[in-house]
C-alpha cells in the first residue's frame, strides 16, 4: 500500500510518499480502504518526534480517516465489507489502508460526504468527551473555547450551540472571529486586539465561563482562572504555550472550580470505544440533522502532506485540513 512516511524526526521535508507493506485485519479489527485522512496539530508533533504513537500502534502519522471497509477480522459484528465509515485512529491514517479496532469505527453520518467525514472523529470525540462527558456542559451555560477557528474550536462551537449553550471563542485575527460568529460564537474575541477575560466578563455580566476548553496551556492558566465562573470547569487539552505554570489554589477554592486535563490518544481502547459509542448515540443524530458540519478548509492530495502541515503550522486554516487518498 501507499503511505506518507516520516523518514526521520524533523521538518516538513522528512515527509515522503512510499510503498509500505500491506495490512491484514487482526482479531476484532477492520481493514479500511482510506478515502481521506484528517490532519491534526498533533501530527506535527509526531513528525518532529515529540509525540510517538502508543506502543503497538502503526508508526505512520494520522489520527482519523474515512473510507470503505475492505475486510473484517475475526469476531467483528455490526459492520460489513463495503460499508462507508470513518474511524478514530491511534496512528496510521496517512495511508491508502488502515487497520483499526472495530470499536473505534463509526458509520459515515448521513448528510456528510465520505471525504468530509474524515474530519469528524478526532475533533468530535475530543470535544464530546471533554466538554460534555467530563465537564458536563449544560443547556444555558456558557462555554469559552480557545482557538475557536481550529478543528477543535469549530466543532466545539457548533456542538455546544446545538445543545443549547452559549459559546464564547478566542481567535488570533478579525477574519477568524467573523468565521466563529457565523458558526454561533458570541462573543468571538480577537486575543491579539483585546483582553479575552475582560471581554468575556463584560459579555456575561461578570459571570464568566461555566466550562473552558483550553488548547493553550500554561500561558493561559491564571487568565482562565479569572475567566471561569463559580463552580466552573477548566479542561486543558492542548499545551501550545507550555505545560508548567503556577496555580493559585486560593482562587480555585474561592470559585469552587475544577481544573481537568486529558489526552485522547493514550487512553485505553475500552475508554476510547466508550467515547466513540457515546458519540454515535448522542452526536451522530445532530450531524445527520445538520446541526454539526465538518468545517473543511481544504482537501489536498496525500502526496501533499507536507503542504498540509505548512498550512496548520502557519495557522492559515479555519476548521479541518484533509488529505484525499
Ligand atoms: N488532548 C487531546 O485529547 C486533544 C485532542 C485533539 C486536539 N488536541 C489539541 O487541541 C488543539 C487544537 O487542535 P487542532 O488539530 O484543532 O489544531 P489547529 O486547527 O491547528 O488549531 C490550533 C489553534 O490554536 C489557536 N491558538 C494558538 N495560540 C492561541 C492563543 N494564544 N489563544 C487562543 N488560541 C490560540 C490557533 O488559533 P489562531 O490562529 O486564531 O491564533 C489555532 O486555531 C491542539 O493544541 C491539539 O494538540 C488535544
From TrEMBL:
Protein name stated in the entry: NAD(P)H-quinone oxidoreductase
Organism: Tenggerimyces flavus
Keyword Oxidoreductase: yes
Classification via Pfam families: ADH_N (PF08240), ADH_zinc_N (PF00107)
Record keywords: NADP, Oxidoreductase
Domain of life: Bacteria
InterPro entries listed in its UniProt record: ADH-like_C, ADH-like_N, ER, GroES-like_sf, NAD(P)-bd_dom_sf, Quinone_OxRdtase_PIG3
Signal peptide: none
